[in-house]
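User: Hey, quick favor. My workstation is busy. Could you predict this chain's structure for me?
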Amino acid sequence: MSPHSASKAPRGALAKIEAILNPHLDPAPAGTQAADGQLPAGGKATITLGELSDLMEERAFGLLLLVLALPCCLPFVYLLPQLVALPMVVLAVQMASGRRAPWLPETLRKRKLPVAGLLDVVARAKRYGGWLERLAHPRFPGLTGDRATRIIGVLLIVPCLSILVPLPLTNTVPGIGVALAAVGLIERDALFVLLGLIIGLIWVAILAIGGPALIYFLINFLLNREAAV
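Assistant: No problem, here it is.
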């Protein structure tokens, strides 16, 4: 790779995802123009998970987990979290098993994601959390090596399973944790990985402990109210 081409390579995980997705937007219909004179990109383009995985190449686990986790950690994003939850669990299990590159079963490889929707999520993530991503840089590389990646995969299964549960409060914070850990994997930053794991695991623990207690409280409240009536 020449120095000139290296200088044009996108810097940062979110920029890398944008560079992968942008060429897959639909071209604008002939003769149409946006207000600024530019041809508007169509919003109906889709990309399969298999295509996305194949395009990621280096550090595919981190990039795939990040692009799948982003819709889960941003508010007011619909449909995408339901499409990406199961693949996230599959990827975490594969990391735990020691695979060097992601493999998706054909049913998941064929799952289609809206390119414009993903780009919108990435743009929102850059707007609200881009400053945080810029803090990531290689730190403690031994903690993001092959052996450590297996342990990280085991721990990531927990927040990914939480995202899979279709209940309130089960996806946003775990999604943030997985996204931070994914940035750490991409940038070889063990501090980001640890921060993401701590956020995801603590939140799931709070839900596991506090959820049943809240249900018990509500049941008792309703029973006592009926008895008083």
